[in-house]
Amino acid sequence: MRAFFAPWMVGPNAEPTFLVWIVATLVKMIAVFTVYMVGVALLTLAERKISAWMQDRHGPNRVGKGWLQPVADGVKNFVKEETYPDAANLPLFILAPILSFVPALITWSVIPFAAPWGSVFGNIEMVLAPLPVGFLFILAISSLGVYGIVLAGWSSNNKYALLGGLRSSAQMISYEIAMGMSTIPVLLLAGNVSLSQIVNQQAFETWNVLNLTVAFLIFLVAAFAETNRLPFDLPEAESELITGYHTEYSSMKFSMFFIAEYANMVTASALMATLFFGGWDIPFTLWDNVAPHTALKTLLTLGCFATKTLFFVFLYMWIRWTLPRFRYDQLMSLGWKLMLPLALAYIVAVAATIVTLDALGFEHGSVPFHVGLVLLNTAAVVILFMIVDRGRLVSPAYSRLDRRDLEKLRAVSSPHRAQPVSQAGD
């Protein structure tokens, strides 16, 4: 047996042979996408259990004490009848769920999920496709999901589905710009668009959430909007549009939209962990970042990456059962009037700070360099939330009326009970 494998055993620090690379890629594809799909199914159970916990309920507890509920839901969707509206455009109607489902899976392929494994067959990268432009690949592929949603809304020939599709396309395009802009400071610090290089830069310096706090906050809000999750679920507003762009869908085509939503949640959570929280890096140690790259390091870094990703998935679910939905005008106003100008101003501020620190002779990665960036972010957060905003712009429930105009309206509507705003409360 050893004689059979001997031609491919090149050592732990060498590049693997082509055959080993092919086999390793196939094994990673099967393992990653199996775990990915099973994990997405279990996330539906997790959301129902978390919502029940927050509302003091039991949640699913009948089928296998609740653990087999995703299996029961899947079997039900497989055996349900496929329905097609009479006036629908059938080719596009069938194609739409696929266009939403496929990009959600492909985007995961360039995210490094663990430290490389220095096996006897060579150095195996723990990423399906270690592209040198991995981050740009994610932005390009994830933007294709909007086509599936738009086609689902239009091809159904249903007014509610059409409104949901239009809302979703406007929302995703609006917040996609802010999301892309918020990552430019990350690229400025890393000097590379490879996700593996971004992880290594944070491992040997400091996590980007400390250096680029405002960029992380912009990315976080834009990620909620891109995945159509509360408080940005305007395309699926049940109280207004039934279920939005998938009103006419049934059976597995209906399920594919939800699988795509949860898959996008996982991908966005993994991307936040990678760009701002060090990815698979174990904090407060460099043991996992230097040779030799053993199997133990790979397993521990995989667990660290999964923990960070699941934290953000839990945050998605927590926010859903905590915050109310935005109005549509507030949704668009937040994206275009606040987040986009803020992202542009932050890019200029970070670039100017980096140039200034370089001119002062502070090297990238040095303590004074990071102190300067942390001070910039502290000042930006204080100015943004405590001086400029003060709970008015970011809050989804503020009134655009002047206080004096509000008093006039109250006086007209109830002249006998009119009272000052300071006493009546807002």
Protein model, in words:
It is a single chain. This protein has 426 residues and is mainly α. It has one domain (2-323). Helix content is 64%, strand content 1%. It is built from 18 helices and two strands. The protein has helices at 2-5, 18-54, 69-79, 90-106, 134-142, 145-155, 159-182, 184-190, 195-204, 208-211, 213-226, 238-241, 251-276, 295-320, 328-359, 367-389, 403-413, 421-424, and strands at residues 117-119, 122-124. It has a two-stranded antiparallel sheet with strand order 1-2. A hairpin with a 2-residue loop joins strand 1 and strand 2. Helix 4 (90-106) runs parallel beside helix 13 (251-276) and helix 8 crosses helix 9 (195-204). It is globular and about 65 Å long. Residues 421-426 have low confidence and may be disordered.
Order of helices and strands: HHHHEEHHHHHHHHHHHHHH
Tally of DSSP β-strands: 2
Low-confidence stretches: 421-426
Label the structural class.
Answer: mainly alpha
Taking the alpha carbons of the first and last residues, their distance comes to: 78 Å
Shape: globular
What portion of residues is helical?
55-70%
What is the count of helical runs?
A: 18
The Rg value, from CA coordinates, equals: 25 Å
Largest sheet: 2 strands, antiparallel
Mean pLDDT: 81
Strand content: under 5%
Describe the structure concisely.
The chain is mostly helical and 426 residues long. It has helices at residues 2-5, 18-54, 69-79, 90-106, 134-142, 145-155, 159-182, 184-190, 195-204, 208-211, 213-226, 238-241, 251-276, 295-320, 328-359, 367-389, 403-413, 421-424; strands at residues 117-119, 122-124.
